[in-house]
């Protein structure tokens, strides 16, 4: 082909192409030099033909070009020299500006000879455009990186800081230049997670997840940071760009939020448990209310029935005792009468228990020292429970005195002891213990203070079902004819009427313990409650008695007793009737009146009588606690059912 250089067509093409073409022979002498080359070197072709390339461009000797040309001749290899890595030929454009170029070196062989063709391509425009683009890109990149709120730090593979953005100043407190060349570790606390994350990750195994670490500001204080890592490689070296986001405030806010949430949760839990507790308490209170309402209505019912029975028993007992006096002393008749009296008396005991349960018992409240009362009862109790049961009393001296009806208290203790006995058929032990209790609030009692008497046995105990119903009147597990089911009812009624209460704890096989709460006597009440000595009976004298009762049967029985005692009797069926009789100037020494009467009751009548004739003694006969407690002391008092002896004693006391 080179043989054709002188070919006019070929020569025309050779000079027309827009790249530089240079042909050198094996000695390095130029044999071809096209017009493009002549233009950019300012050397016409004739001037350079035959000259050594290195003569034309002396500096080229120090470049890679001679070696590459050599290789083309020796081994026939082709190569490219680019402007970026190599300083090449001193070529200039029309304005004298440097022409950036690449050179392709190729071996060219003809039949006779070997040559080397250099193709020089002008890349000035492309490179300049690329530079402008890159500069623009760089400017954009710096604008982004420098305006980023997070600190951006690039380190090399030895963790030495190579580059930082402007934000390191306000994020970490360091000036821009201060960090360059420093180890990254000055920004980290010892044992930092970032160090291990850096050693574990690399360009090839990227981990995108941000790492939370504790870092160090320039002032030595520590802060919380979230760090993202970006690995990259350039010039055979690995770099990591780390982006530091300061989350100290957010972490503090999160912690505060967590604390607040925890506190909220805690108070929510507390509230819930309080609500649960209140609901439970309410349920218990409702159950207790229901229980006490039930007891109340049973009490009213039994109380009413017992009251009527009481009146009838009074009549029967009165008549029987009179009859006993009236009939001749015949053994058979007297035995029958005694049995009838016993029966009636048992009936009276039963009504007493019923009235106690119904809290309508006539209570004679007095000062009771348990240190005295209980030991005095022990013999009787031992006798009642039998030799197989050991009875112990535990009452210390500091146990205060109580204000109750002593007889009723004794009855209650006997009932409890008998229950214990029945629960211990094989024997066991029974303990009566007393202690002071300052407040009854825990069990719903409003007045203070109390004494608790606890009767504990080692018997068979109660099932849950029995325990739930034990205090109900007529509830018994002892079989028909053996238990009336009124023992605990009586104790319950008595304690409630006395201002206290009763609690039972029992488990099958583990015994039972019944605690009764009774009000402690107030300071100084001992003197006031000491029993007045009974007056000596005066000489019996005949009294003119006005007897008031709406129940004819009761009235007749009482009249018979009065007559039998040697007194004269005028009967009135109502209060107004009695007042009329009193106005009629009929002389009376005494008025005995029933309390429960329709229209004007006994108490109202007594008050009216007292207004007119303050000196006239009055006795109120009551079957149950219906008398206003504070006023009853103004008048004499007789508890129904009464015997002729009770009546005589009351008359005696009244006219004393
Ligand atoms: N100490 C106790 N141990 C085991 N069960 C008892 C005890 N006290 C009472 N109970 C149970 O409670 C029931 C009711 O007792 P409560 O005293 O009211 O009547 P009762 O003993 O059956 O009859 P009453 O008292 O008229 O003899 C008893 O039948 C018994 O089942
Ligand atoms: Mg009993």
For the record, give the distance between the C-alpha atoms at the N and C termini, rounded to a whole number. 173 Å
Mean pLDDT: 86
- CA radius of gyration is 63 Å
Number of helices: 20
Please describe the biggest sheet, giving its number of strands, its sense, and whether it closes into a barrel.
Answer: 5 strands, antiparallel
- Strand arrangement within the widest β-sheet reads 2-1-5-4-3
How much β-strand is present in the residues?
A: 15-25%
Number of strands: 22
Structural class: alpha+beta
Helix content: 40-55%
The low-pLDDT segments are 527-539
Q: Which ligands occur here?
A: adenosine-5'-triphosphate, magnesium ion
Backbone shape: rod-shaped
Please give the structural blueprint.
Elements: H1 8-16, E1 20-25, E2 30-33, H2 35-41, H3 45-48, H4 53-56, H5 65-75, E3 79-81, E4 101-109, E5 114-122, H6 124-147, E6 151-156, E7 161-164, H7 168-172, H8 176-179, H9 193-200, E8 211-216, E9 222-234, E10 237-246, H10 248-326, H11 331-357, E11 365-368, H12 370-385, E12 389-395, E13 402-405, H13 406-423, E14 428-437, E15 450-457, H14 464-469, H15 487-497, E16 501-506, E17 512-519, H16 525-529, E18 544-548, H17 552-564, E19 568-572, H18 575-583, E20 590-594, H19 602-612, E21 618-622, E22 636-639, H20 644-654
Parallel strand pairs: 12-14, 18-19, 18-20, 20-21, 21-22
Antiparallel strand pairs: 1-2, 1-5, 3-4, 4-5, 6-7, 6-10, 8-9, 9-10, 11-13, 14-15, 15-17, 16-17
Bound molecules: adenosine-5'-triphosphate (ATP) and magnesium ion.
